[in-house]
Amino acid sequence: MQGATGPFWGHNAIVRVQAFAESCGLPELQGKPPFGGHILSHDYVEAALLARAGWKVEVDASIDGSFEEGPENLLSFAKRDRRWCQGNLQHIRLLLAPGLAPWSRFVFVLGIFSYLVSLLWFGFLVASVIAAVTAPPPDYFPEPHLLFPVFPSDRTKEMIALMIGIFGLLIMPKFAILTESVLTRRVGGFGGAMRAFWSVVTEVVLTSLIAPLMLMYQTKAVLQVLSGRDGGWPSSQRGEGQLTLVQGIRAGLWITATGAVALAVTAWLSPDLVPWLLPVCLPMLFAPVLISWSSRPLTHKLFITPDELTPAPVVRSYREIHARWSGAPQAPLPQPGLGRGAQHAAA
């Protein structure tokens, strides 16, 4: 997504004031929200407008000392994701805007489909169940007077190829980065080779458990936007921290009910499909527990980053000032989840 006309994110951006003032007057889209009104995902649009005016927009990963914290629990993440979903789907109306660079239009398409894909995945699961239920029984003698039966075509090779493709797309890059960090000896900043390895494995397991929940949240968000429901711009609540099980039940009971109904209907209509749906439906059944449990602070040494082992001066200063103002004792390490990298826009 990067290059000379790539996007930038609204935080941690270094922008020429003159370029921004002359190029980035955002239009108010005609009509009512969610597709009209103010543009919510404005930073991608501003980057496209800068590129249209001839300015370079790129990410400079060589600059240290720039940080951004993500949401602390799944509910906060889903709330922010709802706004991003509406903002990205608004970009449908900007795809044919005059003068935009081709790459800027492509970035818009990527952002749009990053949310539509959840709806497509959900539809694929439903279609798979319907196809299995409505499929006619195999006919081993489709023509009269055949001496030998005609067996259905074996799809094992295609299924294996699909599994390898999914592994290569979703999991292989993580282990490729791990291998690169070992070969370049950067792995020490992540707690060593073994700790980094188990961090990657744990991350794969956790994201696999959380993915069905995000499927439901994003599908709900897309359907809300397409049905004309405006999500607005809810404020980000920093420091929400850990969620109780009761809060998890309130937020995830509808996901649990959806997973239970899906399993029950599949078991009734096509029991052979139940094992294939378990990786999706089981996390949905335990959605309240996952929502609550995943919000707990880390109590182990996995997911260590170089910025935790060697805090940047700006982080140390922040923690010292915060401790002095609040009267709280200074923690020895910065909060996990911070990452390096600053962005140049309109260089």
Automatic annotation (TrEMBL):
Pathway as given in its UniProt record: Glycan metabolism; osmoregulated periplasmic glucan (OPG) biosynthesis
User: What does UniProt give as GO cellular component?
Assistant: plasma membrane
Does this UniProt record's set of keywords contain Transit peptide? no
Q: Which residues form the Glycosyltransferase 2-like domain?
A: 3-133
InterPro entries in the record: Glyco_trans_2-like (IPR001173), Glycosyltr_2/OpgH_subfam (IPR050321), Nucleotide-diphossugar_trans (IPR029044)
**Principal location class:** membrane
SUPFAM superfamilies listed in its UniProt record:
Nucleotide-diphospho-sugar transferases
Glycosyltransferase found in the keyword field? yes
Q: Where is this region: Disordered?
A: 327-347
Q: How does it sit in the membrane?
A: Multi-pass membrane protein
Report TM segments. 119-138, 159-177, 197-217, 276-293
| Protein name according to UniProt | Glucans biosynthesis glucosyltransferase H
From which organism does this entry originate?
Answer: Alloyangia mangrovi
